[in-house]
Amino acid sequence: MTEEKEMWSIDELVSMVNEVQTKELAWSGKNLSVQWCELTEGEEPKMAMPDDNTPSEEQTEYYKKVASERIILMIEKANGKSPETATLSKDNWDSIPTTLRWQVSSLVLGQQSENFISG
User: Fold this and answer.
1) In the 8-state DSSP scheme, what is residue 55?
2) Residue 60, CA atoms < 13 Å, CB-side half-sphere
3) 33 pairs with which residues across the strands?
4) Paired residues of 70 in beta bridges
5) Neighbours of 2 (CB within 10 A)
6) Phi/psi at 43 (nearest 5 deg)?
7) How many CB atoms lie within 10 A of CB 103?
8) Is the pLDDT of residue 112 over 70?
């Protein structure tokens, strides 16, 4: 028996960049509501690839910085569309605990991969 797969339409994909996505995240015994929006390529942080001769530690730091910038842009885009439910922002991102930042990043980036898993 063949399983029928649901396919994305182009209209659904285009609408994703305007949809505010929200999830609650459990951290240290309490919940935090996190909101974000998908980005278009034009909204992505500008990125120049590190030179091949750059030490791996510097490359890792560079990619962590770009990933953090991307998460902040996704959160700020949602905040602009739904300011009444905003919790995180670029103004408080660097002030929250690192473990929470990693969890938020994993949630946002993990949600993207869940949306686009091919089976």
Assistant:
1) -
2) 3
3) 24
4) none
5) 4
6) -90, -15
7) 18
8) no
How would you class 20 by CB atoms within 10 Å of its CB: exposed for 0-12, middle for 13-18, buried for 19 or more?
Answer: middle
Residue 78 and residue 35 in contact, taking contact as beta carbons nearer than 8 Å: yes
One-letter amino acid of 74: M
Q: Report CA dihedral (106, 91, 64, 100) to the nearest 10 degrees.
A: -40
**Residue 116 — φ and ψ, nearest 5°?**
-120, 35
Integer Cα distance of 5 and 59 in angstroms: 39
Distance from the Cα of residue 92 to its chain's centroid: 16
* pTM passes above 0.85: no
Residue with tokens 């994993």: 106
pLDDT tens track for 27-58: 999 999 999 999 999 998 887 777 778 888 88
